[in-house]
Amino acid sequence: MNLAVDKTQHNFDSMRWLFIAPGNLAGDFSNVPCGIGILAAILEQNGIFVRVKDFSVEPLDYAGLKEFIVLNRISHVGITMMTCQACVAYEIAKFIETEDSSIVIVSGGIHPTILPEESLKNSIDIVYRDEAESSFVETLPHILKTPFDYERLREIQGITFACGDEVISTGDAERVQDLDSLPLPAYHLFAFPERYVTQFLYKKGYSTNLITSRGCTGHCVFCSKHYQGVHFQSAENVVEQFIFLRDKYNISQIFVQDDFFSYDLERVEKICDLLIKNKVDVPWVCSNTRADSISYELFRKMKESGCISVAFGVESGNEMVRKKIGKNLKTEDIFNAVKLAKRAGLLTSAFYIFGHHCETWEDALDTIEFAKNLNTDTVTFSVNCPFPGAPLYKMLIKKGVSLPEDWGRYRTWGEPLFETEFLSKQQIVKLQKMAYRQYYLRPAYLMRQIQNLFKTGNFFMYWRGLKWMLEQYFDYKVMAKNRPAHLRK
């Protein structure tokens, strides 16, 4: 992939970029927004001025933002957003446009990808849909100044923009086949690593998230992924990142955040072999593991390479519900995978959702009993959310279900956005809270965790785990004092 701009044809000295992340989603953690981090690195490789503002780790002060833009003579702003961040993102875009209408404002991320025309109505000039690295570089010469070179923009795939009264959406951008060709995020432009902390912490010290692949082969109705298939970095590249983060930033633990990390088992095994061979010695966590695509031998090698914990997306304890929501996992496969992970010495976690469109009260009770029988070290019980672009969202709209227009409410905790044929909103919340209490307050569970605590002596990990559990149960409010003011809602 060619990520270089042609400086023989254009002068980019006047182009000065600012990338903005509107804020975190929830919880007492903050992950580096890798998408804008990579784009910032690409700009730096091309000698183009770029800065970053991540409002998940600093307060959103509009006066300060204006001063920053003026002092740095910013000409172009790029804003990334998920659905629950869209309201804040649009407010930021409107503020910048009002203060200086000459500044070009672009956006990317899953929400603009799904609803590009909405973004154009909210002070956004161009939307980069799906993976933006290639299309972003291609557009740079044609958006140096306004008016844009609209004829050339029409030739670039993966973008949406307005030309007069016409909205143009070009064809889908080609996916990045070789993720090794992309640079690492420009970590030095963030308050990294001091202000960032991952969901799971094994010990004191700096931590970070890492995304080593893109995509998923699943068909879950609640997921708004926009393309099929998995592309990934080579094992060598992944291990080089581990070593770089350890040596450059003193990172002592890594949260691997892939949607489907275990897609290519040979790659996972090679990653583990290289981590062992190079004595990297950095504990890591696997956030998403398919229960039907793993083996004891691989779990054991993951443990030897430094893996601490693996997580499984179960979503429902009822097999018929799982089939109806596109999560085609057999019960025996789930129990077998967790059993093998425990046997290999790994901590285990499971994710469940209440409020599936086809779920009855009895089905939900099945999930609670299933979770207790599976008996992972930690669990997350979420509330179903119909994100735009997901099959569930389209299904509900087709049925005439009224969904709120406030994107800030689209989240997997708190009050559900819809009631099902079988469950009211109040019942869904009741099930979630009941599940947390029944799971974590079991005497046998508490005794096992206390024994593990004294056996390992890792008080820090268990203290962080307790805080994380309280965050989930109380809808991410109890630790709000640790977040910037605009994120304490």
- General form: globular
What structural category characterises the helix and strand content? alpha/beta
- Percentage of residues assigned to helices: 25-40%
- Assembly form of the protein: single chain
Query: What is the rounded distance between the termini?
Result: 42 Å
Number of helices: 17
Q: What's the pLDDT, averaged over the residues? A: 93
Largest sheet: 7 strands, mixed
Q: Which stretches are poorly predicted, pLDDT < 50 over at least 5 residues?
A: none
State the strand order across the main sheet: 2-1-3-4-5-6-7
Describe this structure in words.
The chain has 489 residues and is of the alpha/beta class. The chain has 17 helices and 15 strands. It has helices spanning 34-45, 62-71, 86-99, 110-114, 116-120, 133-139, 150-153, 235-249, 265-277, 296-304, 319-324, 331-343, 361-374, 391-398, 425-440, 443-456, 459-473, and strands at residues 16-21, 49-54, 76-80, 104-108, 126-128, 159-163, 166-169, 206-210, 213-216, 229-232, 251-256, 284-286, 307-315, 347-354, 378-383. Strands 2-1-3-4-5-6-7 form a seven-stranded mixed beta sheet, sandwiched between helices. β3 (76-80), α3 (86-99) and β4 (104-108) form a beta-alpha-beta unit.
